[in-house]
Recover the amino acids of this structure.
């Protein structure tokens, strides 16, 4: 009888230790999985391109509001429209560049011309765009293929208000215009203006 209890006690102790070890291993794996979803985000700035490692929660951060100087071109004082500033302040504009693992020269040009066009647009408009380069062949990014109707390398602009995506557009003509850098950049800037026209 004593031997049976001793065997039971040893078995129970081993079982508990085994379970606690599995739990730790599961937590470690969960941590590894969540860190693999950290993506490299490049915030396009009119002066430089800054690379930051952040989680996808970047869209929930509040972007800076458009600065209202309170002056028109004629030097007259105007009223500050705080509702416009609040609306713009809670919005985040993202430019996604989706590509496969292997990229051709054309794909790389689409990326480079897009960055240049967005930098110039930011400088002129005073707005900021968050640049996200994502490999559509990575399993964590596969959902974007159906979400944005992607068939190949693509530039997609999306607006997030209060952390939720409320509008997006796939700039499909980038492939047609990639051989004419000036027209390409003009197209991207035009689409950004049209996209944000009825804010």
């Amino acid at each position: 009888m004593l031997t049976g209890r001793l065997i039971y006690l040893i078995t129970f102790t081993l079982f508990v230790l085994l379970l606690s070890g599995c739990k730790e291993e599961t937590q470690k794996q969960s941590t590894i999985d969540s860190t693999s979803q950290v993506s490299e985000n490049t915030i396009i700035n009119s002066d430089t391109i800054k690379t930051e490692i952040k989680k996808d929660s970047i869209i929930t951060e509040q972007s800076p509001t458009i600065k209202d100087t309170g002056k028109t071109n004629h030097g007259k004082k105007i009223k500050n429209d705080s509702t416009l500033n609040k609306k713009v302040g809670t919005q985040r504009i993202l430019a996604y560049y989706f590509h496969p693992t292997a990229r051709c020269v054309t794909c790389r040009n689409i990326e480079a011309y897009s960055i240049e066009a967005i930098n110039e647009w930011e400088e002129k408009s005073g707005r900021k765009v968050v640049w996200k380069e994502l490999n559509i062949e990575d399993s964590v990014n596969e959902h974007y293929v159906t979400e944005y109707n992607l068939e190949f390398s693509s530039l997609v602009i999306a607006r997030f208000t209060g952390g939720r995506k409320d509008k997006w557009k796939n700039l499909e003509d980038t492939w047609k215009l990639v051989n004419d850098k000036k027209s390409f950049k003009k197209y991207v800037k035009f689409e950004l203006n049209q996209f944000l026209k009825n804010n």
